[in-house]
Amino acid sequence: MKSCSEKLKPRWARRKEDRPQELLCAALHVFGEKGYAAARLEDVAKRAGVSKGTVYLYYSNKEELLKAVVTEHISPIVGEAANLKDEKATSAQMISDALHLWWDRYGSTELSAITKLILSEANAFPELGHFFYDEVIKPWWDYLESLLKQGVASGEFRCQDTEYAAKVLCAPLVTLGLWKHTMDACCNLNTDPMRYIDSHVQMVLNGLSIKQHDTPHNTGSAVRNIAGAGGLQPH
Amino acid sequence: MKSCSEKLKPRWARRKEDRPQELLCAALHVFGEKGYAAARLEDVAKRAGVSKGTVYLYYSNKEELLKAVVTEHISPIVGEAANLKDEKATSAQMISDALHLWWDRYGSTELSAITKLILSEANAFPELGHFFYDEVIKPWWDYLESLLKQGVASGEFRCQDTEYAAKVLCAPLVTLGLWKHTMDACCNLNTDPMRYIDSHVQMVLNGLSIKQHDTPHNTGSAVRNIAGAGGLQPH
Amino acid sequence: MKSCSEKLKPRWARRKEDRPQELLCAALHVFGEKGYAAARLEDVAKRAGVSKGTVYLYYSNKEELLKAVVTEHISPIVGEAANLKDEKATSAQMISDALHLWWDRYGSTELSAITKLILSEANAFPELGHFFYDEVIKPWWDYLESLLKQGVASGEFRCQDTEYAAKVLCAPLVTLGLWKHTMDACCNLNTDPMRYIDSHVQMVLNGLSIKQHDTPHNTGSAVRNIAGAGGLQPH
Amino acid sequence: MKSCSEKLKPRWARRKEDRPQELLCAALHVFGEKGYAAARLEDVAKRAGVSKGTVYLYYSNKEELLKAVVTEHISPIVGEAANLKDEKATSAQMISDALHLWWDRYGSTELSAITKLILSEANAFPELGHFFYDEVIKPWWDYLESLLKQGVASGEFRCQDTEYAAKVLCAPLVTLGLWKHTMDACCNLNTDPMRYIDSHVQMVLNGLSIKQHDTPHNTGSAVRNIAGAGGLQPH
DNA sequence: AATGAATGAGTCTTCATTCAT
DNA sequence: TATGAATGAAGACTCATTCAT
Known about the structure:
The structure is a homotetramer.
Chain A: H1 4-12, H2 21-34, H3 41-48, H4 52-58, H5 62-74, H6 91-107, H7 112-121, H8 126-153, H9 162-181, H10 183-186, H11 193-206, H12 221-224
Helix pairs in contact in A: 2-3, 2-5, 2-7, 3-4, 5-8, 6-8, 6-9, 6-11, 7-9, 8-9, 9-11
The structure holds a DNA duplex.
Pfam families (chains A, B, C, D): TetR_C_7, TetR_N
DNA-binding region (chains A, B, C, D): 40-59
Keywords (chains A, B, C, D): DNA-binding
């Protein structure tokens, strides 16, 4: 796997042993809350209980700290999906397990702040986005697709487009993770993750429709009902 | 209505009425790409074809510009979902139409940069998150839930938890919109929106499982297969 | 008299006829209130009921406007003191009249804002200070000194140092004019000019002491009573 | 206590404790010379031998710096007048001493730049004017009035209006302080403070008139002698 | 290794000044 | 003449980074 992390490791992996993890935790928190640009290194230092200068003993600058935050936090789950073994279980069960696993190991922890961080900063630091895609997203997509294919092969699942179905399967969990870090907080919502995941699993496995039928074509009927619909400007 | 890319008239010939929209377009682009904090007003001005000072003739400061970007871009779709009328169509068809509508009217336009912007800045500007939730998200959730309930009432759908199912229904579209603005770009992916939406619609309507059954309980089987799984720190 | 104004007139005196006096009045008000640097030309324009650009039709820039404000407002009283004729009155009466005249013609009008303006800006625009000194202050000093000398010559006054006594005679009126424009306003005081001037006139003519004696020497007794007197730093 | 002009230690050796006073000295000088609005913080910093950013380590912004300049420079003389003790001296002697004291402790130092500063900025920062009035002016007025009353009570002084007489007594010293900072500089005058104060003291104690009489009423005679007297506009 | 005072480049913001109408 | 939108130089302020201790 030609991942970004391999290229990056020589640069980022120095002083791994003695690098205080408090710094990375503090940085994830502050970066996650404020975004990279608005985060002040002094706040990170304060939160880690050290002085501003100390940060520079471990990370040569703000950008390196960001990269370390992402890579170090992610490293424990790098390749995790790829190592998931086939189980002697129904495909439905394995899909459900996989989605719950993602949530347990990722979405429900502060690690999910990483998602927000990467989405926000991927334009400024494309290698971070690439790294995240290679090490986290793609393996999960591949794993979910393998489950789907296995289910189709065994006659348990119907699925015409396993590649995109895998992407779609992940999506609500990603959204949920983002949600917990943003809208839930600012709107005083309190989305229940288990209820959310269960709804998702239930829907994608059994479907909404009692009587099976082809996917409806987009009739555009709803669109027609919007009076005076006009955007600000065509983009 | 002129497109953002047209730069016809010389500076001085452009009228006061045109400026705000030109600035809002430019600002959405720059804010969406860089984030609020990292965006330079000079870049916004340059993109709008004006000088730094001109921005301040229309928006009293950077924050007001951000708020205007969000509110003005969103205003055309405010209440849109709430105005969608019931159709004489199957519920399946209406769900499909609704999801396609969302994409046509929102996800596929530069408006979707708003989502990223709001997720990134909701902590710093909670009123923006709140506004977006009240005016865009909640109405759509409500609309989708009404469709689900209608389908259940008519015997067409099975759905135990219409509230959360509505949230889940939206999620992949949100993710897709974010994706187009971040990972697709930085990883040279080129996710096909129609194929993605169709997979989503197909899955949620018909379900993956050929033989219907109860939602599997989370067995945690996948988790057990991960060796040495350990996060950076407990969060 | 080689006054600054002669050198300056060629530059400042243009367009005298059609130059709107509202502009100068507005400028005096705004400059007097905010000071030169903090005054916005737009405020001057607004107060004069014209647009920003119009100011530039009459004054080539902010500095010229300031100079015009000073010179034009002062010109009616330029040389006024020098033209005061000897009266067939007691010197005491003439001193009193002179001080009341200063107040009537100068201190009590918005012209006194000029004093504040000049004191504030004399460092930045020394020629203004010089002009004011030559055209207003010096003639008044000379006039007052001439009255004092006349009084001494006629045996009505005792005065050892007519030059400095003249300066001192003016001083309370200057202070009063400044006071009305600053402290009176911000501290809600309401100093009564007539009562103030009368006290001044009474004191300088008749003196406080009932029994005449020499000016006491500074014994420094009061100083000795201040415990721990210590400034911020020696200057 | 080192003087402002000493620049001994290299930047890095100066301690945190020294900075504020160095900055306040520099700021008083620059504010006093240019006025608040026209003063550039960079000039203050340069004069204090530090960089722009350093100012903000000690004062959160320009306005706070101004307030600190005023309050810190004034604090040593706050209440000073109120603490002046009665002396076993003639009231004339005490008046003379008091006026010389004011000059020694205030007018002759760079503290007198404060007066100019406050007069210039009292409109913009009324609390500064108020503070100065409460802490410096009013106590001095009260002190001088107490001396006058004491003199009247003991039969040494005649004074009908001690309240206003006290105000008038201060005024020439205030004017002198302002003068040294403005007109003296720009007009190359060199007013001799001692001669000035002595003239003032002599005049107010003994009076100009050899033969005592009532305060003359304003006859307006001088006014009548001015031909074509006409202000710019009625104010 | 750790500190935190100091630095100065970079950005927001203001406003004198210009200029096409 | 008059307007006011537009400009851009200048200055307040922030904060990543350095460095003497």
